Amino acid sequence: MSIKVMQYGFLALCLGTMSASIQSAELGSVDTKWRALSPDDKISLEVFDDDKIGGIACYLSKAETGGYSGALGFAEDTSDASLDCQQVGPITIKEEFKKGELVFRERRSLIFKSMKVLRFCDVERNVLVYLVYSERVIEGSPKNSVSAVPIAPWGSDVNAAMLPRCNYSG
């Protein structure tokens, strides 16, 4: 293997481990395939908050490959994922954002594959829309999931005129 290929591989590894500033918390998991003497394949359930939109939590389920390669981080996880974002408090837009802005990113293989959650805005209906999909350096997957969160009053705050408006920056 040439030095240049190794350098690019190392750079891709370093960039692959960098993610959006949001960290997820694991809520639990279920085994889907038993493997003798090594970790089972599983579906894990995680939650993360949108750092630019207060009052929204996103719940993400994803398939994870077990076995020795999965335990060591060498396995490529499948593109199977599901996303559900919910209003969990008063919605506040802390910062302007761009169309299709990255909210969450996670490495799904050692170098070449990542899972991303992007944020969109349905301006006409005042709804925040989140999309999860996986991408590879060479070829992505059409598997995806979407979740929509209408900006609505929370609790006793029923003044619709005071609700934030979903818009894009610049």
Quick check: average pLDDT?
A: 77
Count of individual domains: 1
Q: Strands of the largest sheet, in order across it?
A: 1-2-3-4
Low-confidence blocks of residues: 1-20
Features:
single chain, 170 residues, mainly beta, four-stranded antiparallel sheet, 45% strand, disordered N terminus
How would you summarize what this structure contains?
By secondary structure, the chain is mainly β. The protein has two helices and eight strands; from the N terminus they run H-E-E-E-H-E-E-E-E-E. Mean pLDDT is 77; it is low at 1-20.
Task: Walk me through this protein's architecture.
With 170 residues, the chain is mainly beta. It has one domain. Helix content is 12%, strand content 45%. It has 2 helices and 8 strands, in the order H-E-E-E-H-E-E-E-E-E. The strands form 2 sheets. Strands 1-2-3-4 form a 4-stranded antiparallel beta sheet, with no helix packed on it. Strands 5-6-7-8 form a 4-stranded antiparallel beta sheet, with no helix packed on it. Strand 5 and strand 6 form a beta hairpin. The N terminus is likely disordered.
